[in-house]
Design goal:
187 residues; alpha/beta; Rossmann fold; 7-stranded mixed beta sheet; two-stranded antiparallel sheet; disordered N terminus
């Protein structure tokens, strides 16, 4: 008896799960630090945020594959800033932005912590999903509070449950090795 298996998913790719670019496949380089937020987690996150992000300004601070930022753009965000310091990952983000003709996306090759720690643009939603092995989430959370618009939300993902002093936890979940939550800074 011949066993038919599902079509294998191409390595180093991510599928946009909702919005204008739904089902589009985006490719990213093979880098150890890239760990795209899984489909199931992104679906949960965007259910929490509401399926449409029309008029919102979003920051994908550790963009990597761009899964979160591209998903936000697909769902109508007015502006999405993606920060990525690795040049190969940044180049892939630019190629994928061109492929989608996503004019609302601004890709910058910058260190996320340095960007967040200085005054500048304010955001409605900030995505913080740094490389798990670099212990960057706690300082990123503290700096991100200063870059939020009133009522803004922060999505945070980490390999362990987080200590979240200074934040209201709006929602929390876990999938595989990832703990994730949606937060609002306490005023």
């Amino acid at each position: 008896m011949l066993k038919v298996s599902a079509k294998p998913r191409r390595a180093n790719s991510v599928r946009i799960i909702g919005g204008e670019y739904r089902s589009r496949i985006l490719h990213f380089p093979d880098l150890d630090s890239l760990r795209p937020t899984p489909d199931r987690v992104r679906e949960t996150l965007f259910n929490w945020l509401g399926q449409r992000l029309h008029g919102l300004t979003c920051l994908d601070a550790f963009a990597g594959s761009g899964a979160l930022g591209f998903e936000a753009a697909s769902r109508g965000a007015a502006r999405v800033v993606m920060l990525e310091k690795d040049s190969k990952a940044r180049d892939a983000l630019r190629q994928n932005t061109a492929l989608l003709a996503a004019s609302c996306i601004d890709i910058q090759q910058l260190d996320a912590l340095a960007y967040l720690s200085r005054p500048g643009e304010l955001f409605d939603v900030i995505f913080l999903d740094p490389p798990f092995d670099q212990d960057l989430l706690a300082p990123a959370l503290q700096s991100a509070k200063t870059r939020m618009r009133p009522g803004g939300k922060i999505y945070a993902e980490s390999p362990t449950s987080l200590s979240l002093d200074g934040f209201t936890v709006l929602r929390r979940g876990r999938a595989g090795l990832s703990h994730f939550c949606l937060l609002q800074p306490l005023d």
